[in-house]
Design goal:
There is one protein chain. The chain is α+β, with helices and mostly antiparallel strands. It has one domain (about 5-100). Helix content is about 20%, strand content about 35%. The chain has helices at about 5-25, 40, and strands at about 35, 50, 55, 65-70, 75-80, 90-100. Strands 1, 2, 3, 4, 5 and 6 form a six-stranded antiparallel sheet that branches. A hairpin with a 5-residue loop joins strand 5 (about 75-80) and strand 6. It is globular and about 40 Å long.
Length: about 100
Amino acid sequence: MAGTVTPDMASLLVERTLEKYAKDYFPRLGQVSLAFRGDRAEKYHYDKIRPLSSARSQGKDMVVIEGVSQKTGATSLYRIECNSWNLIEVLELLEEISPARVG
């Protein structure tokens, strides 16, 4: 079955994402922004996310960070994933934590 993700594969992806983020992204929080994965970018209006926190696993198949939308200024939880090119991408907005700042 091509395209099927097994529980073991999901766990490996979570580990790879946590390691990559901790090594290459977290130390440079003020300098990086994350893009939504290509197939989801239009849904999120091609927003870029400025990460604010370390990454943490949520369940066995998800990694989340706190970040700020560069379009709205709202702080939210985002699901991230390390892609096949070893880059971190945002998959979805999970929960808005604080509303956008105005002015």
